Amino acid sequence: MMIKVSTVLAALLAAACAAPALAAPIQAGDAQVVRRYAAPEARQGVAVDRDHVYAVANFVIAKYDKKTGAKLAEWKGDPARFPHINSCTVIGKELVCANSNFPAVPHWSAVEFFDPKTLTHLRTVALGPGTGSVTWVERRDGFWWAAFANYDGKGGETPRDHRHTVLVKFDDQWRRTQAWSFPQSVLERFAPMSSSGGGFGPDGRLYITGHDHKELYVLELPKAGGAVLDHVATIGVDVEGQAVDWDESEPGMIYGISRPSREIVAMRAPSLKDKLP
Asked: Is the predicted pLDDT of residue 4 greater than 70, yes or no?
């Protein structure tokens, strides 16, 4: 019995079209603004711990009292060595920051470690060139996670563009173990820039910001198949993208910055417990 090739191709195409598509991300409401802190250094991102907030501005980090908003300390680095600290987060007893040479090319990236008590610089992990500009670093499940931004135009390194933004998982020796691309629905909102901030929320999902939009994208690692993150929800936030940080001392609280008003913004994120499986 002979079967025409065209018949086989038609059957395969029909099966592919019938395959279930990924569920569209839900609109999960807006985060509620709880407090604003005046911080002239709020240009790139913010970090938070139990008692303090930290404003990040390229080669400057400023430490503020969380209760009073009073400025307590400031670190300034050499712009040649710290041209673009984009984000920081408190991990254990250290303030961990993503540093790159954006908008210069070729890209290089490094992770900088500080003492959060004194803002003394402790050490550097040089990640080198070839992946993009590191914009945020996180620690979870015994691994390091980092996002490497790629851009269209200014700050871009051809042939890569915003679509080449990638999440990389490293072991304790900073060896790359796995990597994921961002979904098209999120990349469209990044363009022509990239992911400016992100981190794991209390529910274990990734919460990602872009560069300009007042949106927080909720992503999950794919449970099976492929290397593209799943976009499951979008949350409205009263900050224009940039780097964010979860307050581990108060689950559900996430901090961001408003560049136009030079403010740190504390927000309570809506729960997704009854909205997502």
From this structure: no
* Per-residue three-class SS string for the chain: CCCCHHHHHHHHHHHHHHCCCCCCCEEEEECEEEEEEECCCCCCEEEECCCEEEEEEECEEEEEECCCCCEEEEEECCCCCCCEEEEEEEECCEEEEEEECCCCCCCCEEEEEEECCCCEEEEEEEEECCCCEEEEEEEECCEEEEEEECCCCCCCCCCCCHHHCEEEEECCCCCEEEEEECCHHHHHHHCCCCCCEEEECCCCCEEEECCCCCEEEEEECCCCCCCECEEEEEEECCCCCCCCEECCCCCCEEEEEECCCCEEEEEECCCCCCCCC
- The one-letter code for the residue type at 148 is F
Q: How far apart are CA 35 and CA 147, in angstroms?
A: 28
pTM as predicted: 0.90
> Which of these, 94, 62, 58, lies nearest to 75 by C-alpha position?
62
Largest CA distance in the chain: 83
pLDDT digits (tens, 9 = 90+) for 133-151: 999 999 999 999 999 999 9
For residue 69, what are its two tokens?
């908003």
235 Cβ partners below 8 Å, 6+ apart?
Answer: 28, 29, 30, 31, 207, 215, 216, 218, 269, 270
Q: Is residue 124 exposed (0-12), middle (13-18) or buried (19+ Cβ within 10 Å)?
A: middle
Say how many C-beta atoms besides its own lie within 10 A of residue 123's C-beta: 9
pLDDT in tens, 85-112: 999 999 999 999 999 999 999 999 999 9
In contact, 46 and 57? CB cutoff 8 Å: no
Sequence-ordered list of residues with C-beta below 8 angstroms from that of 268, at least 6 positions apart, any chain:
31, 32, 34, 252, 253, 254
Cross-strand partners of 266: 35, 255
Q: Which two tokens stand for residue 92?
A: 């254990």
